[in-house]
Amino acid sequence: MQAGQIDERQAQGASSGLFHAFTATCEQVAATSSRLAKAALVRDYLAGLADDDLAIAARFFTGQPFAQADARVLNVGYALVRDVVCVLAGIDPTAS
Q1: DSSP state of 4
Q2: Is 18 within 8 Å of 26 (Cβ atoms)?
Q3: Count of CB atoms situated within 10 Å of the CB of 68
């Protein structure tokens, strides 16, 4: 491997860390009833992301991964998406 390159394991680790931070933020948002606190949690999370990751995270925070003009829908529930993503990221979906 040449200097400046990252191997696939490092990339997967980074993705797993980003996903973990995303899910932790979602849990914190769900745990508070304060709109200002929710906004601050999301703001702080999004502020630490690179532009490419920011666009993806913002779409998923809205609950609409596709553009409003896009007629596609996922037609899957939250639990299925969570379980699949956790398996792919190597995270136990039942862990707290």
Answers
A1: T
A2: no
A3: 7
Is 25:45 a contact under the CB 8 Å cutoff?
A: yes
Helix (H) or strand (E) holding 7: none
Give the confidence band of 28 by pLDDT, cuts at 50, 70, 90: very high
d(CA 19, CA 17): 5
Contact 93, 87 (CB under 8 A): yes
Angle at which helix 51-62 crosses helix 8-31, to 10 degrees, equals 40
**Distance from C-alpha of 57 to C-alpha of 47, rounded to nearest angstrom:** 11
- Token pair, residue 91, equals 């995270």
SS3 (DSSP) at 24: helix
